[in-house]
Amino acid sequence: MERFEKLRAVGTLERYSTARHDWKFYLGPAVTASYRLPKGHSQPLKDCIYKALGDVIAQHPILSAIPVDESTQNPYFVRLPEIQLQKCVFFRERQLDSDLDADVERDIELDELLSTQHSVPYEPPNPFWQVHIMTSSAHPSQFTASFLYHHALGDGASGIAFHRTFHSALSKSFSISPADLPSTSVIPSPSTPLLPALESLHPLPVSTWYLLTILFKNKIWSARDLGLWTGSKCTAPFGQSCVRHLAFSARSTIAFKTLCRENGTTITGALQTLIAGALFAHLPEKSTKLVCTGALSARRFLPEDARITDDSMGVWILDMSETYTRDRFPQHGDSGQGGRDLLPWTEAQRSRQNIEHVLSSKGQNAGVGLLGYVNDYQQELFLSKVGKDRDSSFEVSNLGLFKPAAPAEEDEGVAIGRMVFTQSAGVTASAIQVSVITGADGCLVLGVSWQKGIVDDRLVEKAMQAVNAEMRRLVGTD
């Protein structure tokens, strides 16, 4: 690595991801999108994708950078001199006749791909990202592109930024003649500096009282609620990620959003509550408490001159948490699973208020602000937790609605549709991770992941079925 150009140091929040990747405790997120090509195109798909990725790499310098010395307390980024696309872009033919525009709840082949790839760490000197292209001979004008990446390279919103850039670049590549497409798969790295780390742009202030409270809980008194369910204890080595996704139609998504607004909450607040209700419905009665964690974008709090926008790739997020108790999900009437109210709106309203409270703090007393007080990331944040109970039950991270860079009439024939946001499971992460996105097709999709053996597969399947059934009941499509 000494022969590569040394860039800036890995930031404190980015180092959280390099430390856990070093021990294979968590491997990264992925954002997948389906694409439809213009009718009658003559350009070879691979050539157009390579051309588009070259444009994407030129626009986002983090894609040509990799973190080195992950095992130390002082990792840093280096720039690869070039990106050999054949080492990070992979093509495969679908085995099932899958129409990506069809109103289906699940793409089984995509789940299998993500389950496999979310279990594979990144290795230098290869890029710390991959793109997996799935094509279909039955539907030659369609393909699916899964963008997987190391979390130190980007947050969840960075996956959206990638696809927005890729979609625009792909549209342009299909507008030129096949003879003008480049014949090489080797892309020279740009000389553009990396965007700053979060702590370089935001003070992340921590009050003395907040710091003392955290120290007291971690060092002096950390009694655990016996009713808190968090799956099995933190177990290493990592093992296998299991991934499933559940898609709702555009009509159901609009109806659910309207229902949330009418009941004084948001989609995120309602989903957190609904997932908690679905878990309570299938967990033993002794499990009386659930802790939900989540990530919120900090981009809105960064200075304007930093030029960090929705189209930027990097890691600028804040953390949040919420607690749910079984007694807030009463059993009455014929609502919900077995008469249990899976989505009490008062709880969903409380969840929305908690999110708004975290956002109103604008980064003050956020968990990410405590990372500056950590001496040994690997030992203090990860290795010390192996064999112990997890801190949280499930995670909900919502990327919101994807908006293409150009209106449909200006995209020169390339359309982007269904999207799926997923993450690898984590040794010390929440027992279940739910990653949410609404694609350009207007369909809300939940990407669910968990570590094999840490959570019973049947529990996850039953909880997802309960979420699906309750959503359908609420919007009147059951």
From TrEMBL:
<dbReference type="GO" id="GO:0008080">
    <property type="term" value="F:N-acetyltransferase activity"/>
</dbReference>
<dbReference type="InterPro" id="IPR010828">
    <property type="entry name" value="Atf2/Sli1-like"/>
</dbReference>
<dbReference type="InterPro" id="IPR052058">
    <property type="entry name" value="Alcohol_O-acetyltransferase"/>
</dbReference>
<protein>
    <recommendedName>
        <fullName>Alcohol acetyltransferase</fullName>
    </recommendedName>
</protein>
<dbReference type="Pfam" id="PF07247">
    <property type="entry name" value="AATase"/>
</dbReference>
<dbReference type="InterPro" id="IPR023213">
    <property type="entry name" value="CAT-like_dom_sf"/>
</dbReference>
